[in-house]
Amino acid sequence: MKIYNNYDGSSIDVIKNSLKENIIITSLKVEHNNYCHYYNFFVKNLSSSKGVVFIKNIKKSPYFIDDFQRPWFREKERWNQFECDAVKLNDDELEIEIKPYQECEISLVPRYTLEDLETFLVKLKKQKHCKIINDIVPQIIIGKTENPVTLVIARQHPGETMSSFFVEGMID
């Protein structure tokens, strides 16, 4: 299997990549003396047999909750949650089964990409009650500005992608 994790936001380190055994062992990265709470990486199973990715130190994150959430994967621009039988939580590691020839992005939660934001802004620009100021940090004005205002700020922390989905749903 091949793994791609060398980018900002990946938050995992590769410990071992065994092509013979079709196993990749990773660990959450340590940042500021704590294990990260988020992980994101790309994996490609080049084999006709299943592969396995292990993420160690999963319970050492200060954000880990006992009500374990199955990770998400994206194939062909669509996010899905792994089936129950494809993911196991063993002691302090997460075990994820990768199907033969599967190529996907794996993440704790679905990523909200710049393309997602651009698509949403194009949709909003078509609506007559919306005005968008500033393309770098979009400010969306909805309705009349002389009325009382509700200010919503989202996405201050890059790993908290769910806030982008939330704000998009709230605006819709």
Task: Explain what the structure shows.
The protein is mainly beta and 172 residues long. The chain contains 2 helices and 14 strands, in the order ββββββββββββαββα. It has helices at 114-125, 162-171; strands spanning 2-4, 12-18, 23-28, 30-31, 34-35, 40-44, 51-56, 72-75, 78-81, 87-90, 93-98, 103-107, 130-133, 139-142. A 5-stranded antiparallel sheet has the order 1-6-12-8-9, with no helix packed on it. A 5-stranded mixed sheet has the order 2-3-7-11-10, with no helix packed on it. Strand 2 and strand 3 form a beta hairpin. The longest helix has 12 residues, at 114-125.
Short description:
The protein is mainly beta and about 170 residues long. The protein has 2 helices and 14 strands, in the order ββββββββββββαββα.
How is this fold's topology laid out?
Elements: E1 2-4, E2 12-18, E3 23-28, E4 30-31, E5 34-35, E6 40-44, E7 51-56, E8 72-75, E9 78-81, E10 87-90, E11 93-98, E12 103-107, H1 114-125, E13 130-133, E14 139-142, H2 162-171
Parallel strand pairs: 3-7
Antiparallel strand pairs: 1-6, 2-3, 4-5, 6-12, 7-11, 8-9, 8-12, 10-11, 13-14
